[in-house]
Amino acid sequence: MGNAEIATELKAAILYMDHDGDPVKEIARLMGLSRRTIYDYLDGKIKISLPFLHAATIATNGHPAIGRFLEPSGFRLVRDEAADPQKHAEAELTDVVLAVGRTIEHVRSALEDKRLTAQERADLDLCLDDTERELSEARAAIRQL
Fold first, then answer.
1. Which pLDDT score, from 0 to 100, does residue 122 have?
2. Environment class of residue 122 by beta-carbon count within 10 Å: exposed (0-12), middle (13-18) or buried (19+)?
3. In sequence order, which residues have a C-beta less than 8 Å from that of residue 103 and are 6 or more positions away?
4. CA–CA distance from 137 to each of 96, 97, 123, 130, 143 (Å)?
5. Which residues of the chain have pLDDT under 70?
6. pTM for this structure?
7. What interhelical angle do 35-42 and 3-16 show, nearest 10?
8. How far apart are CA 30 and CA 54, in angstroms?
9. In whole angstroms, how far apart are CA 131 and each of 30, 38, 136?
């Protein structure tokens, strides 16, 4: 199934099926995008991404017509009633703090001899990439609150 077919099915499920609230508005909020951009996804102008499918599933409370795109054949997506968004956000923020701490340790270690080698610079870049990834995950968790 290509992007156009997926977008057409998602559009029908999101716009024309009964949902509590406004799924387009909720997807936009979850993804940090404008409603117009969400319509561009649904019109097939932007390739459907995994984050879009996640947000659409959440916005439609796990509607089967949306969730099926996340389910391998023979599996069924079910809601985790034990999941606590606040605890998840706190854990993600803790990961950010830990990543920043590792970066600080690398900076201190690299600057002990008052110069930065190419390898130390590469290690710092990796630490900063890890910190950015953790921050992105924390942002996504906070949007779920």
1. 93
2. exposed
3. 124, 127, 128, 130, 131
4. 9, 12, 21, 11, 10
5. 79-83
6. 0.54
7. 120
8. 9
9. 21, 28, 9
